[in-house]
Amino acid sequence: MQRKNLVIVGGGSTYTLGMIMSLIEEKEHFPLKKITFYDINATRQEIIAKAAKVLLKEHYPELESFSYTTDKATAFSDMDAAFVQIRTGGLAMRELDEQIPIQHGVIGQETCGAGGMAYGLRSIKDMIELVHDIRQYSRDAWILNYTNPAAIVGLALKREFPEDKRILNICDMPIAIMKSYADLLEKDVWELVPEYFGLNHFGWFSKILDKQGHDLTDDIKNKIINGDFLPTDKEIAHDESWIQTFRKARQMLVDFPEFLPNTYLQYYLYPDDLAKKESPDNTRARQVINGREKRVHELCDHIISQQTTHDINIEADIHGVYMIRAAASLVFNWKETFVVMVENNGIISNLPDDALVEVPALLTSHGPKAFSVGEIPTFYKGLIESQHAYEKLVVEAYYENSYNKLLQALTLNRTIVHAPKAKGILDDLIDTNKDYWPELN
Ligand SMILES: NC(=O)c1ccc[n+]([C@@H]2O[C@H](COP(=O)([O-])OP(=O)(O)OC[C@H]3O[C@@H](n4cnc5c(N)ncnc54)[C@H](O)[C@@H]3O)[C@@H](O)[C@H]2O)c1
Ligand SMILES: O=P(O)(O)OC[C@H]1O[C@H](O[C@H]2[C@H](O)[C@@H](O)[C@@H](O)O[C@@H]2CO)[C@H](O)[C@@H](O)[C@@H]1O
Ligand SMILES: [Mn+2]
């Protein structure tokens, strides 16, 4: 197999070290000649990059080049693939996205509700600029975007780059949930074949089959209803917040037994219960700063001081493996099935064509070829249409500098609903985001 060149945009991300370990474990599937990190924050990136250098030297000796840079031309020239994982405003702004809605009595969340809207308006601008820059230097590179909120970023990228068929918006939540199903069934996650529909962080598995075509759906439902449904990927298995989140799947399934829910639906189906549990002093951002970020930075410091990785476990995680195999399927035309975001255009026949739906697709060298879903039942159609309208209004508001469309978006959002509350939250978010958002009229 021909070796490829990969740039990781947002090299300083808390996910990058795990991604490097996953690239090492997946090197036979996605053999690389060159890995480059790009970030706007040289200091943050250097911590990860110096540790990655040691890891790669010991475990990827066949790699011809590893480098890290803040220069776009150096980063983006001659690339086959780009993994884009930036966070405009950093975890500090994530914390404000989460705190402000809580202060108004509604859910404060990274990608859902008002927090997701605030983050979306910040991400769109940087993501559009980045894709223009990548295209200037690598016209044909596959761009895998998982920068959040991927639903809103993805819609904006479709609007800005309608003819670009080599941008794929992708999320790891469906595979992380499937990993838990696989562990319930004592099977390998890659043996499971999903049927799935919805929007990003807003979807359902209608079926889970195995590769021989056996239907495993009822078995999974019974195990969730009668047992304990838990996260099992190593990155989240011991995280209390993720444990509570996965456990909530049971209630969703009891209330709405037709389909298996994405864990993010908890925010939309039980907004009052969840809002009551949140506290501005213990946001998820704060937990990540004191948890994943601290853990990753300590591990990097350890590797850098030892200049070896002999005393640490090199283990892939499901997030990394999913992105890597999806990229390999595009680059090498594997035609494997992944749940990804694509423009609807009739895939879900009773939803708008312009919705960015999340569905299973074959990833080929000509792009994703999604399987037809057909009609979905009224309850799910209603929920999705309203969420799609919210996402679309946020993107339109960005392009039109429209205060009114943002107010409409927040009022439509199931985590808010009450218009005066939407207005209060919006006005506070405008204040905190003045360095990032477009000016609103
Ligand atoms: N779609 C998914 O399923 C999924 C899964 C995991 C993470 N994510 C996303 O990945 C991103 C990274 O998450 P994290 O928690 O590691 O955040 P982080 O803040 O630790 O890392 C983000 C990095 O991006 C850099 N950055 C910010 N703006 C940039 C720009 N314009 N150009 C280049 N670099 C820039 C920052 O300096 C930082 O080093 C987030 O958007 C997160 O939501 C998505
Ligand atoms: O609150 P965080 O920062 O811990 O997580 C937010 C992200 O959650 C999902 O990603 C999971 C992923 O599903 C799992 O496999 C593992 O890698 O952990 C991630 C969270 O730490 C979600 O899909 C992302 O979009 C969120 O950004
Ligand atoms: Mn996601």
Automatic annotation (TrEMBL):
PANTHER family: 6-PHOSPHO-BETA-GLUCOSIDASE-RELATED, MALTOSE-6'-PHOSPHATE GLUCOSIDASE. This is Maltose-6'-phosphate glucosidase. GO terms for molecular function: hydrolase activity, hydrolyzing O-glycosyl compounds; metal ion binding; oxidoreductase activity, acting on the CH-OH group of donors, NAD or NADP as acceptor. Its cofactor is NAD(+). GO terms for biological process: carbohydrate metabolic process. Keywords: Cobalt, Glycosidase, Hydrolase, Iron, Manganese, Membrane, Metal-binding, NAD, Nickel, Transmembrane, Transmembrane helix. Gene3D superfamilies: Lactate dehydrogenase/glycoside hydrolase, family 4, C-terminal, NAD(P)-binding Rossmann-like Domain. Substrate binds at R94, N148, R284. The record marks E110 as: Increases basicity of active site Tyr. Binds 1 NAD(+) per subunit. Residues 196-415 form the Glycosyl hydrolase family 4 C-terminal domain. Belongs to the glycosyl hydrolase 4 family. The active site is at D172 (proton donor), Y264 (proton acceptor). Mn(2+) binds at C171, H201. The chain crosses the membrane at residues 6-24.
